[in-house]
Amino acid sequence: MMIRVRGKEHPWREGMTVADLLKELNDPYPYAVVRIDGRAISRPHFDKTTIPDGAEIFLIPMIAGG
Questions:
Q1: What is the reported pTM?
Q2: Among 6, 64, 65, which Cα is nearest to 35's?
Q3: What is the rounded distance in angstroms from the CA atom of residue 26 to the CA atom of residue 47?
Q4: Which of 26, 13, 23, 22 is nearest to 59 (CA)?
Q5: Which SS3 state, helix, strand or coil, does residue 62 take?
Q6: Are 21 and 10 in contact (CB under 8 A)?
Q7: Cβ distance 50 to 19 under 8 Å?
Q8: CA gap 43, 19 in Å, rounded
Q9: 3-state secondary structure of 6
Q10: What is the tens place of the pLDDT at every residue in 32-62?
């Protein structure tokens, strides 16, 4: 039972949410969106969105410019 995050395998567990994953990765970056198998999930939904086994995860950072 694994998922792929940034192209690397990561252990998966039943009921794992996007918020759980970010906590496990110990990555302090404030991601605005996480893409799960092509589906975009925005920050307000990180606590409620579960990750399926075998998912491909892309972390998309906030970008600002002027």
A1: 0.89
A2: 6
A3: 16
A4: 22
A5: coil
A6: yes
A7: no
A8: 9
A9: coil
A10: 999 999 999 999 999 999 999 999 999 998 7
